[in-house]
Amino acid sequence: MSRPGRESENRSVSTPEALHRFSQDPRVRTRRSGPPRDGGKCVVYWMQRAQRILENPALDLAIGIANELSLPVVIYFSVMGNFPGANLRHFHFMQQGLRDIAEGAAERGIGFVLRRAPESTLEAFLEEVNAAILIGDENPLREPERWRAALAKRLTIPYWTVDADVVVPSAIFNRSFVLLHHFRPHLKRHLDQFLVAGPAPAPVKPWRPARATSSFDLSRDITEGFAKLDRGVEPVDTFTGGTHAALKRLDHFIRHALAGYNEQRNHPAVDGTSRMSPYLHFGHISPITIALAVRAAAANGQCPGDTAEKFLDELIGWRELAILFVRHNPNYDNWECAEPWARKTLIEHAGDPRPWSYSLAQFERAETHDELWNAAQRQMVRTGYMHNYLRMYWAKKILEWSPDPARAFEWAVTLNDRYQLDGRDPNGYSGIAWAIVGKHDRPWFNRPVFGLIRPMSGEAIARKTDTVTYIANHSPSRN
Ligand SMILES: Cc1cc2nc3c(=O)[nH]c(=O)nc-3n(C[C@H](O)[C@H](O)[C@H](O)COP(=O)(O)OP(=O)(O)OC[C@H]3O[C@@H](n4cnc5c(N)ncnc54)[C@H](O)[C@@H]3O)c2cc1C
Prior knowledge:
This protein has 3 domains: 15-165, HUPs (Rossmann fold, 3-Layer(aba) Sandwich); 243-328, Serine Threonine Protein Phosphatase 5, Tetratricopeptide repeat, CATH 1.25.40; 335-473, DNA Cyclobutane Dipyrimidine Photolyase, subunit A, domain 3, CATH 1.10.579.10. It contains 19 helices and 6 strands. The protein has helices at residues 15-23, 57-69, 88-108, 122-128, 142-154, 180-194, 243-256, 261-264, 277-281, 287-299, 305-328, 340-348, 360-364, 371-383, 388-401, 405-419, 426-437, 458-464, 467-473; strands at 28-32, 42-46, 73-80, 111-117, 131-137, 159-162. Helix 10 runs antiparallel to helix 11, helix 11 (305-328) crosses helix 17 and helix 15 (388-401) packs antiparallel against helix 16. Flavin-adenine dinucleotide is lined by residues 265, 273-277, 280-281, 314-315, 318-319, 322, 388, 391-392, 395, 416, 420, 422-423, 425, 427-428, 431-432, 434-435.
């Protein structure tokens, strides 16, 4: 940034004020403050969670700052072979998304550089391109947050992150909530301010890479040579990754299923939900894009207003409740996150006889006595996705048939994160916590094994929905 009274070659004198204005946005967190590097040649956006060009507040901020500094923007993406819990299924889906990013960046005049760790590091790249400032996105999970905090300590240029994958920035609340109905009024108060399309500024200076700026060729497999990668979980063809596929699926949902969402969402044999979760997990689509499209559909009479609101309650209410839970509870992925009442009741019932008890391997191979449970497990293993109604049942039964609640939680996380395309996500940890330790739920009636945790029965589900078709669709012989 120009020092007072001195105008540097490529920056206007108004730059400090403009930067200050950007930093006041509630989505923005200044992780390392200070002026942009004097003589810096570009703004780097380190893309990690928000893997998209469309409706990406982190990218918008990088472009806004770059325009103020009269600099180009380059997106840096690092493929990490040891990303926690990632396997071939996840990398395959991510690679499909990366192609859309490369295409979108080129159309918008932004650079896109793909490198693979450990051959290249972000810090080496910042030196290579002489970055003036680093912009990043946010991720509430433990490891990605640790990387960001550690990076901020090491960097010598400013580093800001943007809460790009929520509607209302989490910092606005700065706390978690016990129940959704406690959270809703707070959320509603801020929705109109944040549920709006971003400015999508056009870059003033196009990125012209130096000849030596290499980028991994996306026609090659991004996992090439990753010796330690878990390749046992194969890619699926039920979902295609990327923003294009996400928008296509969203359009399909709005035209064919949104109007019936209230009635159909609890019928696992029906294609009655959005299936946006893998795209949201990888940041291929913004929740703002989805919410605005659903609101527009309601305004056009494509669905009743209360149906749109019910969907938004899931997409924004439950999803952002989960994100706040993960952000504020260091035990989000183990049973220690239980509320005191849940912990007490589960300990009281720890010695109850289990009518059935299975090992993790038996669960994984869908070898229980319960055909509905086995079908749900097979849907997840084969398609990378399990219907919401059965996710609840699936996790409740893991509690019922595991030796103790701590192991039930651990095993549910292991399986969920391994096979679901949307796994390793705040929604997964909060969903498992809801099912197994009563998180975001209230005490129910005292029962063996469950204590006061809400139970679920296969018979009750079979009375409400067509489990016969669901089981047939996911039978052992059907692929
Ligand atoms: C045991 C268990 C495990 C789960 N694991 C995951 C997971 O790993 N990843 C994941 O994204 N979701 C998880 N969920 C939440 C939910 O089941 C999925 O988000 C939903 O089924 C995804 O399908 P959809 O996109 O068609 O949902 P829709 O019904 O179309 O809902 C739209 C969006 O709203 C959000 N949403 C819906 N239901 C919930 C919910 N209960 N909690 C938080 N957000 C919600 C999701 O982002 C979803 O994509 C889990 C729930 C349970 C009970």
